[in-house]
Every structure is written in C-alpha cells, then in structure tokens.
C-alpha cells in the first residue's frame, strides 16, 4: 500500500544493470511510485521483427520471468525457431528465444497498426502484470551507432554479433536531435522526489537517454535529488561493453570516469566497496559518495542496496 512518506522515484536505465536496480526498488517501494525511463537506442530489426531489448529486459525482470543467469531473455526458453531459420540460411547471431519471439511478433504487429512505443510498452507490461510505470525514453526512433576500427556498427552488431571486440572511437545517437522525450518522461523527472541513474552503461544506455533533447536539462534542474549508481566495479563492468566503450572514448574505466560522464547531473554516486579508494577523489569534486555492496546477486542484496541508496539521497 502506498503511504505518503514513500518517495516517488524516477530511474534512467538500460537493460541488465538497469533492470536489476529497478527490480531492487520494486522490492521496497509501492510499484506505482516508480517510473523507469528506458533506453531504446538498441532497438533493432531482425527477420522483419522490431526488437526492443532494454524495455523487454526490464519487463521480464519485473514480471519475474527473466533468465537471471544471462540477465536477458525468458528463463527456460528454447531457441528452436532460431535453429529452424538457420536452415533457410538466415542470420542467427541475435539470440531470440521461442517465447521471447512472441513479444517481438506482438510489438511488430502493434507498430504496424500505428501504436507508439509508449503504448506498446504499457501493453506488454500489463501482460506481465507489471505495475511499475515503464516509459521508453522517446517514441521517436534513435539508433546508437558505435564508430569502431571495423566501421560504424549499430549497437547490437557491435555487442552481440562482434562481441565488443572492435576498438571504439566514438558513439553517435542517430535521430536523437529530432527526437522528443516520450509523453510523461519530463513530468516524471520533475515530479520525482528522487532520481536515480541506474548502474547501466553510461555511454550506450544512459548517454542515449540523455541525448534526447530536454531530458538532460530536466535532470540538471533536479541535480540535488539525482544520484547515480556505478556499473563499474573494481575497474571493470560486470559484462561488456561499458568498460570497452568508456576506454575507447578516453575515460578512465573506474568510478571516477563514471562520475565524469555524469558531471553536472548528479549530487551523489553509489560506489562498490571494491572502489572505496576513489571516494576521496570524488569528494574533491563535490560529489557525495556512498560506499556499499552494489552487486545485486539476490533479492536480499538488491533490497539492501535500494534501501541504502534511497536513504543516501533523502539524507
Ligand atoms: P544493457 O543494456 O543490458 O547493456 O544493461 P545496462 O546498460 O542497464 O547495464 C550494463 C551494466 O550493468 C554493466 O556495465 C554491468 O557492470 C552493470 N551491472 C549489472 N549488474 C549489476 C549489479 O548487480 N550491480 C552493479 N553495480 N552493476 C551491475
Ligand atoms: Ca542495452
């Protein structure tokens, strides 16, 4: 039950790290107090299907069906349709499970009928009985393109097909300058008591969201209430490609590099115990620091982190 002391929270997030933190908040707050603003720059078309990886990861995590080992896809899913389509000579580098396929068929059909990303996301969330408010960053198409030694690669090709092996020179967000924040995004940021930047890829998940005109300004205006969680732990990301991308862009792959990306946007950062040594450097930059156990390996660890992060922002 909502209680009038429960804060309203807005979270900017990507897929794996983002979904874990949104789920962590959902363990301790009324679900309708939480709005997740999700990266859609990784969206891609495969076999005529419109796939929206980060929104699906967040929905599956909150819906209790995520494959927690992999961090994406539906637990126990099979890949038989993919084996079949390989016989016909089609690309199968992007892993879509059999049950997951239904989500993409459904989304593709609704898009063809003119539904917006916002409406589709709400529809899919409802099918999983998810009551956290899930918003795409924009209803307009934005594509994260990674400029590498091997050429310009859409994000999924860079990460999944080529395993983040190519040296990164820069990243661009195609379509971002003409994109508008999805309905509700700016209002959710303005109305939140607390804003979190989830422990997501600072470049390819959060950077994409911030590239949508209006969102960065809205966060800047709420800087005092905005705290980031570091996805970099002990000098590395738990899975590619946040570290690879940060290093390609000349950032140090540590919590100081993360804080640099978020300069002007946050008043505090949550770092792992493994990174405690960096706390004094961050303090000289007038950023509040909370040192905590930040790996959300189970429900207890997730609850604990969500609770500490909330207490940290609220003072
Ligand atoms: P993607 O869209 O699937 O790449 O996922 P995100 O952008 O949301 O998050 C990717 C980042 O999540 C990686 O850099 C990981 O290090 C980080 N991450 C994953 N799980 C955890 C966790 O339990 N704690 C923290 N602090 N970071 C995590
Ligand atoms: Ca992603």
What does this 3D model show about the protein?
This protein is α/β, with parallel strands linked by helices and 315 residues long. Helices cover 39% and strands 19% of the residues. It contains 13 helices and 14 strands. The protein has a seven-stranded parallel sheet, with helices on both faces. A three-stranded antiparallel sheet has the order 7-6-8. Helix 12 (279-284) links the parallel strand 13 (268-272) and strand 14. The chain is globular and about 60 Å long. The protein starts with 8 loop residues before the first strand and ends with a helix. The structure holds guanosine-5'-diphosphate and calcium ion. The site of calcium ion has 7 residues, from helix 2.
Question: Layout of SSEs?
Answer:
Layout: E1 9-13, H1 16-28, E2 34-38, E3 44-46, E4 49-51, H2 53-62, H3 80-87, H4 98-112, H5 117-127, E5 133-136, E6 143-148, E7 151-154, H6 155-161, E8 168-174, H7 185-191, E9 194-197, H8 202-210, H9 215-220, E10 226-229, E11 232-233, E12 236-237, H10 242-248, H11 255-261, E13 268-272, H12 279-284, E14 288-292, H13 299-314
Parallel strand pairs: 1-2, 1-9, 2-5, 9-10, 10-13, 13-14
Antiparallel strand pairs: 3-4, 6-7, 6-8, 11-12
Helix pairs in contact: 1-2, 1-13
Bound molecules: guanosine-5'-diphosphate (GDP) and calcium ion.
Guanosine-5'-diphosphate is lined by residues 13-18, 20, 54, 57, 199-201, 205, 229-231, 233, 237-239, 242, 294-296.
């Amino acid at each position: 039950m909502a209680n009038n002391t429960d804060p309203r929270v807005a979270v900017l997030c990507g897929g794996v790290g983002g979904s874990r933190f949104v789920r962590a908040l959902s363990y301790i707050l009324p679900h309708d107090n939480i709005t997740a603003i999700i990266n859609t720059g990784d969206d891609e078309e495969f076999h005529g299907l419109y796939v929206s990886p980060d929104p699906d990861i967040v929905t599956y995590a909150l819906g209790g069906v995520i494959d927690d080992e992999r961090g994406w896809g539906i637990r126990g899913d099979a890949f038989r349709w993919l084996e079949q389509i390989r016989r016909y000579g089609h690309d199968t580098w992007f892993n879509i499970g059999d049950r997951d396929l239904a989500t993409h068929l459904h989304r593709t059909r609704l898009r063809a009928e003119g539904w917006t990303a916002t409406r589709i996301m709400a529809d899919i969330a409802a099918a999983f009985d998810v009551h956290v408010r899930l918003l795409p960053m924009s209803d307009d198409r934005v594509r994260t393109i990674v400029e590498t030694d091997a050429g310009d690669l859409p994000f999924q090709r860079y990460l999944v097909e080529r395993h983040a092996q190519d040296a990164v020179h820069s990243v661009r967000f195609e379509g971002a300058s003409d994109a508008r924040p999805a309905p509700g995004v700016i209002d959710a940021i303005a109305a939140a008591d607390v804003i979190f930047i989830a422990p997501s890829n600072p470049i390819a998940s959060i950077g994409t969201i911030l590239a949508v005109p209006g969102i960065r300004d809205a966060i800047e205006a709420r800087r005092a209430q905005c705290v980031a969680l570091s996805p970099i732990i002990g000098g590395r990301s738990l899975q590619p490609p946040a570290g690879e991308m940060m290093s390609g862009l000349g950032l140090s792959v540590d919590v100081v590099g993360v804080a640099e990306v978020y300069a002007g946007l946050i008043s505090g950062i949550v770092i792992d115990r493994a990174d405690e040594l960096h706390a004094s450097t961050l303090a000289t930059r007038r950023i509040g620091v909370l040192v905590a156990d930040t790996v959300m390996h189970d429900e207890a660890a997730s609850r604990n982190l969500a609770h500490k992060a909330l207490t940290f922002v609220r003072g």
